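Project standup — Tuesday

K.O.: blocked on the structure for the chain from last sprint. Re-posting the sequence here as requested.
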Amino acid sequence: MKLSILIILTFITLSQLFSQNQGFPFIRNYTPSEYHGYSQNWAAEQDNRGVMYFGNGKGILEYNGKNWRRFFTSKGTTILSMCKDNNGRIFIGLLKLQQGGMPPC
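H.V.: unblocked you, prediction finished:
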């Protein structure tokens, strides 16, 4: 009897030990001071190289997994939407009913 209780307790302990981090993705939140942009991001798109672009109140933010870069729009408008075509070109939608495209990198 004592052996079966010991086996059950060992099994429960080991199952809890190995299942603690399963199902939780690694998430890293960045502050506006880290990416040098506005606090609100309105859109996100990933290019064919895996680089992420974010539509922001201060322009376009680029994140390559290590470094942030910021691109300003010609009139300083907010980027509200982004989409990518079949050729990998990213198009942006601006606040003042303007649209444009990003030059290829």
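K.O.: great, moving the ticket to review. The mean pLDDT is 81. The beta strands are 41-46, 52-56, 59-63, 68-71, 79-84, 90-94, 99-101.
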